[in-house]
Prior knowledge:
Blueprint: H1 14-18, E1 26-30, E2 33-37, H2 42-58, E3 64-67, E4 72-75, E5 78-80, E6 84-87, E7 98-99, E8 104-108, H3 114-127, E9 132-137, E10 142-149, E11 152-159, E12 164-165, E13 175-176, H4 177-180
Parallel strand pairs: 4-7, 8-9
Antiparallel strand pairs: 1-2, 3-6, 4-5, 6-8, 9-10, 10-11, 12-13
Amino acid sequence: MTVMASGLKTRxxxxxxxxxxxxxxxxxxxxxxxxxxxxxxxxxQRLVLRxxxxxxxxxxxxxxxFVAPIDVILTPFDVLQPDVVVxxxxxxxSARGIEGPPFLVVEVLSPTTTVYDRTIKSQRxxxxxxxxxxxxxxxxxxxxxxxxxGQTYLSVAGAAPNDTLTHPDFxxxxxxxxxxxx
Length: 182
């Protein structure tokens, strides 16, 4: 723990995070800084559930698909709540959440999170070793798929309205965007 001369913490850690009282908002830590966003809209939640169902149909045990709220604990100072998480290593699933970088995280954009999801969260996921990062954009009915390349992401797949999303790393995956965004 980093402490200033006055005794106040300069970075919030997982123990501090756990002490935040529930208030219907999504609290996250990124490099020890607290970020909070309002609860998602019904449109957002529909997309999350439809995508989670499609991913659950594709990924087989021991992989598991989770939806927010679930803590993804990447470091004591980085605790995020992606909209959808695919964990392929059962040892990462604990009573606290997903511990360590999951195989895939998905963020569904909303007006209050678009910049945050595309910059701060994306950068942190890449630096901390999350291999796959997807962005779902309800405003444009598009899905963007990224793969880690060092400490950044490269675009590897995407789909526009009424396309079928396929991915070079996931043979057999086919998600109809017409159904996803219906």
